[in-house]
Write a structure and sequence with these properties.
10% of the residues lie in helices and 48% in strands. The protein has helices at residues 8-22, 55-58, 111-114, 188-192, 215-221, 333-337; strands at 39-40, 44-54, 65-67, 73-86, 96-107, 117-123, 127-134, 140-150, 153-156, 162-163, 175-181, 198-208, 225-235, 237-250, 267-278, 282-292, 297-308, 323-330, 344-353, 361-362, 368-379, 381-382.
Length: 384
């Protein structure tokens, strides 16, 4: 669930219970004087979270995200019934018979994701498999017109016509095979790197008839059928520069009831100290902004530019080490004083690859991040 329902008071009570057990309060107070002292401001240092997480721990192998034999991450999109042609669908020409591949489109269902993404990125080795089953004994040439459309732009595949494999009669009545479309025979890199929200396709199939020398050939011709589907494979083998992912959620820190004994403005200090060993060849920065939707204004922003350093890579773009980081995210008094003036929080993550903008990187399912986060707080506690 994207929205996090955490109240500041619950966080504070949890911290106090934890500290009572572990004695992590840096400042000490004479408890017998509490009746005379109505204000406390202890500095609390809490070892909050630590972990070791791999890509495959978070994203499981499924129909859309697969891991190949080398554990390279690949995105897969499939479209069935792109072609479904019988002999009756072709024209009655003597030598050349033509059928139309009905124009259609395929929605990749990534429009909502792309609305949150900006920056430069290019997928280096995408492919499309035209998987087909063919029982026509004569050669069939396919002209496939494909375009990708996204963010107001359209890019054409520019694929030359190709000839399908045919069965060897009479011992083989049909054949199943694939024709691979990639950067070597088309403009696929540009289409996929657009990236497309929808893929539009149309085209034609042309049979070149030959003289039938046997009854077996003529028999097969009466039940000929051609079916075909598309499989788009996008390996996580890419270059990127200043890729930004932005999302806006409800302000889960805000005290909506104005009745918490401790509200965000009560903190003199709130800081998260992070140490991490990042096995991904991606550096991560974070900006967190308090946003007032009524006035369309950003009230305050926290900038954690160097949240994670990228891992180094070898000549093939695979990570061969870790990027180590020690950093802090400080929630300033300005930020905390504006928490209750904002109804939204904008998160902006910035990703950059190891090295320069042309550096190839590959994402594998066994990449992992080892991290430790500690919370340091100094609240103002008014007992009266």
């Amino acid at each position: 669930m994207r929205k996090i329902n955490i109240k500041i008071s619950f966080l504070f009570i949890s911290m106090i219970m934890f500290l009572c057990l572990t004695s992590c309060i840096k400042d000490t107070y004479n408890m017998s004087m509490l009746s005379k002292k109505a204000h406390l401001s202890p500095t609390l240092d809490i070892s909050a979270v630590k972990g070791d997480v791999s890509f495959s721990d978070v994203v499981k192998n499924n129909d859309t995200v697969i891991f190949d034999k080398d554990k390279l991450v690949i995105l897969v999109f499939k479209k069935d019934s792109v072609v479904d042609l019988k002999l009756s669908d072709f024209s009655k020409g003597t030598i050349l018979k033509t059928a139309t591949i009905v124009p259609s489109s395929y929605d990749l269902n990534i429009g909502d994701i792309l609305d949150h993404v900006t920056g430069e990125y290019r997928f280096l080795n995408p492919s499309i498999k035209f998987n087909y089953t063919n029982s026509f004994p004569d050669p069939i040439k396919i002209s496939l017109n494909v375009t990708g459309t996204g963010k107001g732009k359209t890019v054409a595949l520019n694929l030359a016509p190709f000839t399908l494999s045919k069965p060897t009669l009479p011992v083989q009545q049909e054949i199943s095979a694939s024709y691979v479309i990639d950067k070597n025979n088309s403009n696929l890199q540009d289409v996929i790197s657009l990236p497309p929200e929808t893929v539009n396709y149309s085209g034609s199939a042309v049979i070149t008839s030959t003289v039938k020398d046997s009854q077996a050939d003529n028999y097969a011709l009466s039940s000929n059928h051609l079916t075909g589907s598309l499989e788009i494979d996008v390996p996580m083998d890419l270059t990127l520069n200043n890729l930004q992912i932005t999302d806006t959620i409800d302000n889960f820190i805000k005290d909506n009831n104005n009745n918490d004994p401790l509200n965000p403005e009560s903190f003199q200090l709130l800081r998260i100290n992070i140490t991490a060993k990042n096995g991904f060849p991606l550096g991560v920065g974070l900006k967190m902004s308090l946003y007032n939707s009524s006035t369309n204004s950003v009230k305050s922003t926290i900038d954690a530019t160097g949240l994670l350093n990228p891992a180094p890579v070898d000549s093939n773009g695979k990570a061969n080490g870790v990027g180590e980081t020690s950093t802090s995210i400080e929630f300033t008094k300005d930020f905390l004083s504006n928490v209750n003036k904002a109804d939204k929080i904008i998160f902006r993550f910035t990703l950059n690859a190891t090295g320069n903008v042309t550096q190839e990187i590959k994402i594998y399912s066994d990449y992992r991040i080892n991290f430790h986060a500690a919370l340091v707080v100094k609240p103002d506690i008014n007992l009266k």
